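Record 1 of the preview.
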Amino acid sequence: MTSLALGADRIGVGIACAVAGFACFSAGDAISKWLIGSRGITAFELFFFFGLFALPVAAGHAVRSGGWDRLRPRLPGATLLRSALITASAISAAWAFGRLPLADVYALLFATPILVTALSVPFLGEAVGRHRWAAVIVGFLGILVMLRPGLVAVDAGHAAALASPLLFSVALIVSRRIGRRESDAAQLATLFLAMVLGGGAVLPFVWVTPDALALLGLAAGGGLSAAGHILLIRALHSAPPSAVTPFQYSQMIWGLLYGLVLFGDTVDAVTMAGAAVVIGSGLYILWRETRRRSGAMLNLS
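->
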């Protein structure tokens, strides 16, 4: 009974960390939307500063949890590729946040579990059964419901919002390849370094001098990004991914709240219906994946 209670406590800690981590990401997204829309900061400049302010936080966390050696990647090529993909995904999302309501962007970002399932076949050689393929198809139909091509204007913001989960899904495929061979600290430090280098390479062409308030927002966004990633790592160390991942959908609540209160955004019923289909498909895929892995472990035992 004691071990079961301790296990339940660890899962509870993991879920609490996941909820807090996704809340940090959502607050950072709201800051991104404000910086791009109201302060004229470009997406590349945004992530240059986010990475710059997040890197010391991530390095400090790594030193406290195991020392400087944890920052050195064991698989530099794959780790750098993963970081570049996540950075490109984040820049695409930030650009979409500047053009669309937060909740609209989140609804499209939630296609990640669907895309990972589809991409795992050609890239990882995984077998996807008919139930999960049906969920993938239904999820894409939900995306079409939200976009309503031919009925509403689909602009570059929607394209960026769709590019973001696609890039992130490929990054997750790379993460699966890396597995546990790469330390969390090295992956975090490489990610924030990629943000600094990637944003910095374009910075001379897109530079907008931030005022004091914008600089404060950039520092806050970087701190929130670092805190969100550290909390998510803690969540995954305390609870299985199947218990943690569904709480990403809590970002829709934050997106609706921040969008309405801070930016006056409204989301129509059709978009919400499409989002519900996408979220439902993603949750079903996660449930089938958990069931499949549990069955595989039982067969091995």
